[in-house]
Amino acid sequence: MLHLRAVCPIDRTDQVLAALKEHPGVAHVLLFRGAAVDPAGDVVEADLAREATDEVVDALCGLGIDRRGGVTLEQIDTALSDAADRAEEAAPGEGADAVVWEELIARTGEESRLNVTFLSFLTIACLLAGVGVVTNSPVTLVGAMVVGPEFGPLAAIAVGLVLRRGDLVRRAGLALAVGFPLAMLVTFGGAVVGSYTGLFDRDMVLAAHQADFVFEVGPFSLIVALLAGAAGMLSMTSAKSAALVGVFISVTTVPAAGYAAIAAVLGEWAICGMSVLQLGVNLVGIVVAAAAVLGLRNRRKRTRDLGRPLSHG
């Protein structure tokens, strides 16, 4: 279930209470009159079955609560209540199958920001991938896959394409367009230093047969990317975040970027080119599959724009 808190203008409180009480997927409605200071008004709280959340949020936004007050949602890990059980049973559909669109937009919007944290994680992941290539260590390559934060922007692009949210697509596209070249450039610099100091040489890298899968582009590269994109979007929309770890490990985006940087330092331009191609295939495949899954999640017709413009705060 999800916990909802709405800051309501006083003249809208009764309508908000009526909307919550009328929906069978709502439980534990609370009212705190005059509790809100800025903006001034009442505070209404309730617990929602996940599959009822979109309808309730729509109703509140239809009353202008998002503009004149505010609506927040929080995940409830445990709810011991007969009323909550009845609400989940009465709400149409299954909670695991429900897509909370505002939650998805907020999550992907946050994870697609171009900031120091995103760039740091992507750069560290690319450096780890470079070390994995040089040392012929699949374990290090897997570590680089897990550390890489690139699925967030890829998911945001898919959401933006399906919902026609150009702001999401632009923000996520910028994060990837800046992040990957920067991470590869830093890895290139580290590889130059390592090469000149004798940490590795050309023969050592080319003998790394266990890392060859990183740049070997073929039909399975696209198949894996499509499956990973589908699984990743299912994970995000069903709130089963644990499955994302498997998605991270299955795709070779970051390892391909790291291998491209190492190959460039060694002058192996064919391998460098194949690594960049592998990176592109994986990025495109993930977005296509994620968008396809999202489009098939029975998205109903909305009467208002989904989500407000993403803030820059």
TrEMBL record:
The chain crosses the membrane at residues 114-135, 141-163, 175-197, 217-236, 243-264, 276-296. Signal peptide: none annotated. Keywords: Membrane, Transmembrane, Transmembrane helix. It holds the Pfam family DUF389. The keyword Nucleotide-binding does not apply. PANTHER family: AT15442P-RELATED. This is Putative hydrophobic protein (TIGR00271 family). It comes from Saccharothrix tamanrassetensis. The lineage of its organism: Bacteria, Bacillati, Actinomycetota, Actinomycetes, Pseudonocardiales.
